[in-house]
Amino acid sequence: MYKKGFTLIELLIVIAIIAILAGVVFVSLDPLKRFQDARNASRWTDVTAVLSAIKVNQVDNGGGYFTDLTDAFGATNLIISGDVTPQAGWSGCNPIACSAATSSAACVSLKELVDNGVLGRIPVSPNAAGSDWNTVLTGYYLSKNANGSITVGACDAEGGETIEVNR
Questions:
Q1: Do the Cβ atoms of 47 and 99 come closer than 8 Å?
Q2: Residue 62 pLDDT exceeds 80
Q3: Residue 94's pLDDT is what?
Q4: How far apart are the first and last CA of the chain?
Q5: Is 88 left (phi over 0), alpha (psi -120 to 50) or beta?
Q6: Distances, alpha carbon 46 to alpha carbons 4, 8, 71, 92, 103, in Å
Q7: pLDDT range class, residue 145, cuts 50, 70, 90
């Protein structure tokens, strides 16, 4: 008697081939890398928006930096704070781990840029310490070099990427 159908061995071989192909596709897509890339893209957008807002504010105010930034640059590296009220002396803001801004514990608030309408909201990095932009450190920093150029960067870029824009 001859019965039509698949043997157990044939079914196991097909299932094994499908599992191997699924594993290869999953590894090649690397979902962790895709999530890192998405968060880094958000950081790039945020640092570009902050630097653009600073430039617009400079044009609107005859070339000067916005008040909070000018007052804060006794230090060369500043953590961008989400605080809506500037902290006295711009110090003691307990900066999050940020290798680019470890030389200073100074904070700067972007509230003035938001109030002037040149920045929609204070950005918060996807990995920053909280989600309420009014009360958290944002995960971004400002830096000013000797010739006066401003750099905005992300403290917690992923995948070995450095996220910085400067003017």
A1: no
A2: no
A3: 46
A4: 83
A5: beta
A6: 63, 56, 23, 24, 23
A7: confident
27 phi/psi in degrees, rounded to 5: -65, -40
pLDDT tens digits, residue range 97-140?
465 544 445 677 788 888 888 888 888 888 765 444 445 568 88
Nearest Cα residue to 98 out of 80, 82, 121: 80
The H or E element that residue 80 is part of is strand 77-81
Query: Among 59, 34, 161, 48, which Cα is nearest to 116's?
Result: 59
- Report whether pLDDT(49) > 80: yes
Where along the chain do its domains lie? 8-166
What tokens appear for 89 in the block?
Answer: 């002396």
Residue with tokens 């040149």: 118
**pLDDT given at position 133:** 42
Q: Which tokens is 14 given? A: 């097909």
C-alpha span between 167 and 164 (Å, rounded): 10
Handedness of CA 158, 109, 124, 120 (dihedral sign): negative
If we measure between CA atoms, which residue out of 105, 110, 116 comes closest to residue 150?
A: 110
